[in-house]
Specification:
Chain A contains nine helices and seven strands; from the N terminus they run ααβααβαβββααβαβα. By secondary structure, chain A is of the alpha/beta class. In chain A, helix 8 links the parallel strand 6 and strand 7. Chain B folds into two domains: about 160 residues, Thiamin diphosphate (ThDP)-binding fold, Pyr/PP domains (Rossmann fold); about 120 residues, Rossmann fold, CATH 3.40.50. The chains are: A alpha/beta (about 270), B alpha/beta (about 300). Chains A and B meet through helix 4 and helix 5 of A and helix 4 and helix 6 of B.
């Protein structure tokens, strides 16, 4: 198996290429979440289909604005044609700005924030009812926790003890208008979520080894798990790191050259 | 006499006995929506999501995307209003095969008043691409239309009511999605109705006949897709066109008929319904009178 760190770095290059090429998109959150996606799709997830044509493990990128990260990952595991990555956000392409169910490998459209966990609950519940194996992974942004529906959904996750769900919070601390604690006072995420009855785990969400270990712990729990994955927004590109302004904009020619050379130097 | 919500509850029980794959979601209103009938017989296949309508729609869609046959219910106000964006972006955009059954629609909710009288749902739902919108008028049509839903892929919004409705149809009637039902063949006019207003339209038709005014009544139970051909046929064959609905006349069936007319057979339509106002608490019949949703108002357009 290829080294996951190496894959994640290659996917970072894809993300930068895609967003530069599209002239718009969300680099900050795509770069923060890519290690989680790499571990899921290249290590943890069973991507085969069951007898009814449903993928055994599912993943919902609820923070759908990080679509470039998901598309690049799907291409890297062969679900999506790599040539399509060039068409991100393009009129004559299929890769919509946010994940669409029409795209191979996407289990549900997402991107309007707050909705992914409810959908994941429904999928996990269906698995329980039908005694089907497999996990439903759902990735939330930290700013996304400001959506009330997330907390409605957490109560449902707990009520039905959906231990076949693993939630990630991509905790990079920043949203469009600034810090998550300034914009909405979203303090003490871990206390809040564990008070909803979930098994709460924390890890460095940009560390491949820690992510793998934490997912193993989550799978051992008899309660649904939420992993608070501490990440760096813009991770891997020095001038984007921890800068809220890189939430949703493309790169100039100079920035593109700089970002690429930084990432390529790590190959 | 039976409410369409009760017919829905009975349908679910019958379907649940035949099909193990059927599951039902509710949002703390199981008694009112009548899904408690299903819950009683199949407690393990009924899921109460609590007072969380956005979560209700998302969870129902997730289960439907995993292959379950899903019915989800709450009041029309909350299903089409509170959870609108979930219905649009999850059920609609992902074209989820889910049955959204909204009870307590329209002014007919009565005493609970404007906050609970949803008179916008037809408008909100029919604008969503790929959404099927259905509005049965009685016990039999509710059950038959719900059966038809099982054969259509994609999201469906079924508009149901709180109060008892007259028995109009018989077991021989067929309810194809995209069609309509026509009562009579009078040439003096056509009354377009749906749901609760069908019985009002039929009463008006009887009264008008006594005055030698012969009209036909069209039940637009399938709001989307709508029976365009029948609307055009009635416009061609009859003199005066009237629509009546327990809904805002902005975006409801009146607007729908007007859309068809303006494109295919331009002709005047008189729209009866709620005209850009909120409802009012009170006995449903009285509230209908206040907003002119009465047979007398229909008759006044002809005589």
């Amino acid at each position: 198996m290829k080294n996951l760190n190496k894959i994640a770095n290659e996917l970072r290059i894809d993300i930068i290429d895609m967003i530069y090429n599209a002239k718009s998109g969300h680099p900050g959150g795509s770069l923060s979440v890519i290690d989680i996606l790499t571990v899921l799709y290249h290590k943890e997830m069973n991507l085969s289909l069951d007898s009814s044509g449903n993928r055994v493990d599912k993943c919902i990128l609820s923070k759908g604005h990080a679509a470039p990260a998901l598309y690049a990952t799907l291409a890297s595991v062969g679900i999506l044609d790599k040539d399509l990555l060039k068409t991100l956000r393009k009129y004559d392409g299929v890769l919509e700005g946010h994940p669409s169910i029409k795209i191979p490998g996407i289990d549900v459209s997402s991107g309007s924030l707050g909705q992914g966990l409810s959908i994941a609950n429904g999928m996990a519940l269906a698995k329980k009812i039908d005694s089907k194996e497999g996990y439903v992974y759902v990735i939330l942004g930290d700013g996304e926790l400001e959506e009330g529906q997330v907390w409605e959904a957490l109560m449902t996750t707990n009520k039905y003890n959906l231990d076949n769900i693993i939630i990630f919070v991509d905790y990079n601390g920043l949203q469009i208008d600034g810090s998550i604690n300034d914009v909405k006072k979203l303090n003490d995420i871990d206390k809040k979520i564990s008070s909803f009855g979930l098994n709460l785990l924390k890890c460095n969400g940009n560390n491949i080894e820690e992510l793998q270990e934490t997912i193993q712990l989550a799978k051992k729990s008899n309660k649904p798990t939420c992993i608070i994955a501490k990440t760096v927004k813009g991770k891997g590109v020095s001038f984007m790191e921890n800068e809220a302004s890189w939430h949703g904009k493309s790169l100039t020619d100079d920035e593109y050259i700089k970002a690429k050379s930084e990432l390529e130097s790590k190959i | 006499m039976k409410s369409t919500r009760k017919a829905y509850g009975e349908f679910l029980v019958e379907l649940g006995r035949k099909d193990q794959n059927v599951i039902v979601f509710d949002a703390d209103l199981a008694k009112a929506t009548c899904t408690d009938m299903f819950k009683k017989e199949f407690p393990n296949r009924h899921f109460d999501i609590g007072i969380s309508e956005q979560d209700l729609v998302g969870t129902a869609c997730g289960a439907a995307l995993s292959g379950k046959t899903v019915f989800a219910s709450t009041f029309a106000m909350f299903l089409s209003g509170r959870a609108y964006e979930q219905v649009r972006n999850t059920a609609g955009y992902s074209h989820v095969n889910v049955n959204l059954c909204a009870t307590h629609s329209g002014l007919a909710v009565g005493e609970d008043g404007p906050t609970h009288q949803c008179i916008e749902d037809i408008s909100l739902m029919r604008v969503i691409p790929g959404m099927t919108v259905l509005s049965p008028a009685d016990d039999i049509s509710t059950k038959k239309i719900l059966s038809e839903c099982l054969n259509i892929n994609g999201p469906k919004y079924i508009r149901l009511g709180r109060s008892d409705t007259m028995d109009i149809y018989s077991e021989e009637d067929v309810f194809e999605i995209g069609k309509s039902k026509t009562f009579g063949n009078g040439y003096n006019g056509t009354i377009f109705a749906t749901g609760n207003t069908l019985s009002i339209a039929l009463e008006a038709k009887e009264e008008l006949a006594k005055n030698n005014v012969n009209v036909r009544v069209v039940d637009l139970y399938s709001i989307k897709p709508v029976d365009k051909e029948n609307i055009i046929k009635c416009a061609k064959e009859t003199e005066l066109l009237v629509s009546i609905e327990d809904h805002s006349i902005i975006g409801g069936i009146g607007s729908l008929v007007a859309d068809v007319l303006s494109q295919y057979y331009p002709k005047k339509l008189i729209k009866i319904g709620v005209n850009d106002k909120f409802g009012k608490s009170g006995n449903a019949k009285k509230v209908y009178e206040l907003f002119g949703i009465t047979k007398e108002n229909i008759i006044s357009k002809f005589i």
